[in-house]
């Protein structure tokens, strides 16, 4: 049986026990709302075994790339929303997936694209993206374009979809609940306006991990989409999505240098293995480029964080106190907890899966587009 000492570094570890706990917590949270389904977003995990846990029985999922759509379809997940605005050049690929027996739905907020979807000879349904406050994409419920896009789609209209990514700016459960309600009200208002104009709206899709967990009611919503909750990260831990002990992914790294004069060590995990995401910089606790744990995933190295990264180097320092350099000889192994699991995991082709602290499997990821 291989151990963590046998793995090449840097590499990505996935704790199956924590993953299962996170999946169960979200399923229970959404189940509190009658008539609302969970459509897990696989953009973070990008793996079929994780999808089997998050959407049991090959349930409905969300994807963010065509590569994901193909991969998950091959693994039996036929009901998908491709939740990134579609461009005309990708319609043939979606239609081919659907002609093979899948139900991949697309989203748009553009009138010309809606006309292209309606004119396409293949089987494609679309949701209109609704802006509920993030100001990233979508039309508001009051925008005249909402009705124009629906009219252009005609029978290809499947529903409406929103994303409350601005919930990441919330810093309390009350703030999360308020953002969740604003999203619910906005996307439901869009659906009601379309129905009043004679359009069938089958799907009213909303969500992000914080709002899916903390929404106080979801009247009028048919499904919630959430994704990062499965793996978790340091930023989500600070906005109430989960606790610090509920982060399922870490990057295994080796010490490659020790520098007592500046109380620092170097790791072989740099920007390409960890990402340069600094989301916790604006959160209550700044974790630099990642929290550093010992080989067993315990915080026994003091207040250790990665404070600086180069392409293949990560500088390890103590945020307070001193670094226990006597426990960090060259070749020693540590685990770095990511700021942003989506970006860190995207640097790796596979998970090395732990259960009960032991390596039990390797699971491939579907990266790229």
Provide an overview of this structure.
This protein is of the alpha/beta class and 369 residues long. It has 2 domains: 4-12 and 242-364, Lyase, Ornithine Decarboxylase, Chain A, domain 1 (Beta Barrel); 17-230, Alanine racemase (TIM Barrel). It is 28% helix and 23% strand. Strand 16 and strand 17 (358-364) form a beta hairpin. Helix 5 runs parallel beside helix 6 (144-153).
SSE topology sketch:
Layout: E1 11-15, H1 16-31, E2 37-38, H2 48-54, E3 61-63, H3 66-74, E4 79-82, H4 91-99, E5 103-108, H5 111-119, E6 126-130, H6 144-153, E7 157-162, H7 173-196, E8 203-206, H8 209-214, E9 223-224, H9 234-238, E10 249-259, E11 264-267, H10 271-274, E12 291-293, E13 304-309, E14 314-318, E15 333-337, H11 341-345, E16 350-355, E17 358-364
Parallel strand pairs: 1-16, 2-9, 3-4, 4-5, 5-6, 6-7, 7-8, 8-9
Antiparallel strand pairs: 1-10, 10-11, 10-15, 11-14, 12-15, 13-14, 16-17
